[in-house]
Amino acid sequence: MTARIITLTTDFGNRDSYVGQLKAAILSVDRNATIVDICHEIGSFDIHHGAFVLGTASRHFPKGTIHVGVVDPGVGSARRPLLFETARAFFVGPDNGLMTLALQGESIKGVTHLENPRYFAPRISSTFHGRDIFAPVAAHLARGVKPHAMGSKVKQWKVLPGFVPRLEPKRLIGHVIFIDKFGNALTNVSLGLWSTALAARFRSLSVGPVKINRIVKTYSQAAQGEPVAVFSSDDWLEIAAYQDHAARRWRLKVGMEVVLHLK
């Protein structure tokens, strides 16, 4: 059997041994696993940040990839450990909304509440489910264990608010969902939504003090320091400043409303 890819997205950072322990837990079950680090610099406890990074990265991996997400401020509490199976991939992590963006547009085949200790570590720490539950489960999946063997099916799970824009008769209300390293403010307005429902009706865009009258293809279509709206490489509408840091310049923050005014 071809080795499955297992990806890791966490808020653990790289100064401690936590990421290494995750990998050790995987390799203890499946020495042939191919482990890929997506990101370990998610802001501490920042589920929205983790959801954005995992959601944008996961769609680029081959079919059958197993994604482990561990941004888990509720570890050890009543929140459930879940396994999502879609037509393209598996997602393993806490039931706290971390998978919200990754699951958008996916055909969900089933969601499992992880309950079978046979597929966990022998000893479960109340503070490190990433190592003791999520990593071993991912490794057993990679070895061919079916989701139904790991627990019971569930029909509801937590979804983060603010990731789905609201369409009104004369405007679309979206939100800033991420600020990247360059200061670009990524929104929850997708290229697909723009192409099907908004492009022909667009009049202007406003977020905080910024007002923009057109969507362009490249940053350089604005003068240096001027605001520009462009679709990112992952097809999300972003507000940028050409060769400048838009978030600092205009005090843009995650959660701010983005209004597209329509004809």
What percentage of amino acids are in beta strands?
A: 25-35%
Spans with pLDDT under 50 lasting ≥5 residues?
none
Secondary-structure-based class equals alpha+beta
| CATH class value of the largest domain | Alpha Beta
Outline type = elongated
* Run of helices and strands: EHEHEEEHEHEEEEHEEEEEHE
Q: Taking Cα atoms only, what radius of gyration do you get, to the nearest Å?
A: 20 Å
Secondary structure tally: strands: 16
CATH architecture title of the largest domain: 3-Layer(aba) Sandwich
Biggest sheet: strands, sense, closure? 9 strands, mixed
Set out the fold topology.
Layout: E1 5-10, H1 18-29, E2 34-39, H2 47-58, E3 65-70, E4 81-86, E5 89-94, H3 100-103, E6 108-114, H4 129-142, E7 151-153, E8 166-167, E9 171-179, E10 185-190, H5 191-198, E11 202-207, E12 210-212, E13 215-216, E14 227-231, E15 236-241, H6 246-250, E16 257-262
Parallel strand pairs: 1-2, 1-3, 3-5, 13-14
Antiparallel strand pairs: 4-5, 4-6, 6-7, 8-9, 9-10, 9-16, 10-15, 11-12, 11-16, 14-15
